[in-house]
Amino acid sequence: MQDLAQxxxxxxxxxxxxxxxxxxxIDNLGEAEWAISKIAKYQAKINEAKALVDSRKVQLxxxxxxxxxxxxxxxxxxxxxxxxxxxxxxxxxxxSMKLPTGTFGFKAQQPEFIKDDEKLLEWADENAKEYIKIxxxxxxxxxxxxCNVSKISEITPFGMTERTVLISPDGQVIDSVTVVxxxxxxxxxxx
Length: 191
Prior knowledge:
This protein is 48% helix and 22% strand. The protein has 191 residues and is of the alpha+beta class. β4 (148-156) and β5 form a beta hairpin.
């Protein structure tokens, strides 16, 4: 196996040049047996080479996973250190800061929608049939595109409160969907 590894390294480092070998023919059983033994010898070398490549693949993948894990841990650490600083420096309409080695900032995220599918289906069946699939399932993506997310004020026994709601194309609040606002997502872009 060691000779094969050395052979592989030499092959990689040198320019490959093929040579023509003289041609001969097999004329009897002895020569046929000899040819088969040569084929077996070369097939064994092929199998050994494949085994070497497979073992190196496993080693390389293990090494790569170790490198990825260690470096991702370091990236996570430095991002966790950078995010609080970013919160103090990035305010107002500004969403990022550009430095010579990269950019950091916050990306707006879409709100999270918690749906009660049964109630939403009932609502859509009465108010927005065009968003209902034949199998009586709300075409959520299309309905969501057609609707607007809005804040409304309500009077409750505890006073005036504000909540974020989903508003249908015809202006109705869709009570079967709870809208959960999400914070802007922190990111780092290396240049």
